[in-house]
Design brief:
Layout: E1 13-18, E2 27-34, E3 40-46, H1 49-66, E4 72-79, H2 83-96, E5 123-128, H3 132-135, E6 145-149, H4 159-172, E7 179-183, H5 189-197, E8 204-207, H6 213-230, E9 237-242, H7 245-249, H8 251-255, E10 263-266, H9 268-275, H10 287-300, E11 303-308, H11 315-328, E12 332-335, H12 341-348, H13 352-370, E13 376-378, E14 381-383, H14 385-400
Parallel strand pairs: 3-4, 5-6, 5-12, 6-7, 7-8, 8-9, 9-10, 10-11, 11-12
Antiparallel strand pairs: 1-2, 2-4, 13-14
Helix pairs in contact: 1-2, 2-4, 11-12, 13-14
Amino acid sequence: MGKSILDRSSSARQGSAGRADANTRADLLVSVYGDDSGELIQDIQSKVEALYGHSIRKTVANALAEFNFTSGRVEVNDRGALPFVIRARLETALRRAGFKGDGLVRRIRGKRPSTKRDRLRRSRLYLPGNEPKFMINAGLHRPDAIILDLEDSVHPLEKDAARLVVRNALAEVDFMGAERMVRINQLPLGFEDLDVIVPESPDLILLPKIESASEVKQVHRRIAKIQKAAEQEKTIWLMPILESALGIENAFGIASATETVVALAMGLEDYTADLGVRKTLEGQESLYARMRLVNAARAAGVQANDSVFSDVGDIAGLSASAHRSRGMGFEGMGCIHPRQIEPIHEAFAPTSNEIERARKICDAFEKAESKGLSVVSLGSRMIDPPVVLRARQLVENARKAGLIH
């Protein structure tokens, strides 16, 4: 490339975004240097020049026109980035250089309806918001949900860049039926995330480190305001994450803060840090918090989702943890690697014996009802309404998971 923008006067309008080192894939480095020379120089290099060079140049030209960049130098070092990434990196670099524009996002998927309130959320796969390479094929692993993360996995200096990558991914990437979730930053920084991503209609927003119902209500109002301006009607669900002693004590109020809350999630790393204790595999130190969260979720009529299992290499430990989690009343947990999805799905799936018994309970109840009987029995055991309710829910979940038809 020619002379880098880093070698030029620091008083000029300059900005860069992305990366292009030897280990980079599906990303690029964009550098812009605006000046008053009246000359526009474009230095564009790509590892896929032969196939997509023309398309990349057209994308760059459109971006410069959108942001009224007419004088200076643009340097692009592409490492196989897809168009949604190229546009995000270009926009970030131009905004960092002080140029203004409406944004570079193609809404090619059309309007999406709201996901079902009670859909299966056994697995939610976290993807770093500033790592587009993980987003491209995430749907192939068949998680129930993907989480485009803007919080802990993103460096503080890269929050602006990650927002645009996530926004463009929401608009353009096919996640193959997975629920499209975004974890925003802790408030008030999270409000800036909402302003950028809500117009692209995520299915659900995860709210980290929530400690009060008022925080949830603030997010709900902010989303409603953004959607009104964008003339959107889609319901965007909320999943507060409880990560402190105070959050756990306020669990029911948080779960019932708005009608858009569909689940509570446990955040064990921050919770145990807040208590000043070590997180263990057995989890005795967090038993109270997890059971209180499950109870609060049930009382509010929402789902309970457990924390992530942080040892990616310990599949046996993950399986045991997931089975314990289901036994406590959780309906799913987080994943930090695709290899964790299948063991989690297996752990949260009802067994064939459970399905068969649940079907027998439902059949016995329906037969008793048809005969006008108030007492229902199955074998030597009496069946009361809560048992029937649990059986129906198990059968419905097995149907959602494709275990029965």
